[in-house]
Amino acid sequence: MPAGSEVGGPLFAEMMDRCSRHQGSIFVADDGNDIAGYVTVLARIKSEDIDDGDIEYGLVTDLMVRDKFRNRGIGRRLLEVAEEHATECGARWLRVEVLSNNGAARDLYKSSGFSEHLLSLEKSLKLPGVKR
Q1: pLDDT tens digits for the chain (132 residues)?
Q2: Which of 36, 70, 106, 123 has the fewest CB neighbours in a 10 Å radius?
Q3: CB–CB of 15/40 below 8 Å?
Q4: Closest residue by Cα to residue 78 from 90, 59, 65
């Protein structure tokens, strides 16, 4: 994955566009002087998976707490605010994706009532003539 500094501007523009299309919001936590973290939630996503049926759901696309603010309950509170927003917009389900090696985030989501819905697996392939 590219560093945040490489994708920051384009990512923010994409987040704002998605928020405008899906009743989304970005909520920011601060301590009065410094940004501690943020969450982006899209409240009305129309499922494109045929086996989901005709449903809409909420989606937490980003949840980040800066290192120096971790273990203070900020991530949990941001997640609660995202859930409140999705509920107010009529979402019946809230989904989130997390990298499999992000144990802290997985623990937060599970302790907040999330359960596994879909497991995606990945394998690196060696392309002929490409050195790794």
Answers
A1: 555 555 567 778 888 899 899 989 999 999 999 999 999 999 998 877 777 777 889 999 999 999 999 999 999 999 999 999 999 999 999 999 999 999 999 999 999 999 998 888 888 888 887 776
A2: 123
A3: yes
A4: 65
Instruction: Say how far apart CA 75 and CA 30 lie, in whole Å.
Output: 12
| Residues 4-111, CATH architecture | 3-Layer(aba) Sandwich (3.40)
- Whether residue 22 contacts residue 43, with contact meaning beta carbons closer than 8 Å, is answered with yes
Q: Which residues of 93-131 are buried (b: 16+ CB within 10 A; e: fewer)?
A: ebbbebeeeeeebbebbeeeebeeeeeeeeeeeeeeeee
Per DSSP, 71 falls in state S
- H helix runs in the chain, sequence order: 4-21, 74-88, 103-111
Strands 94-96 and 56-65: parallel
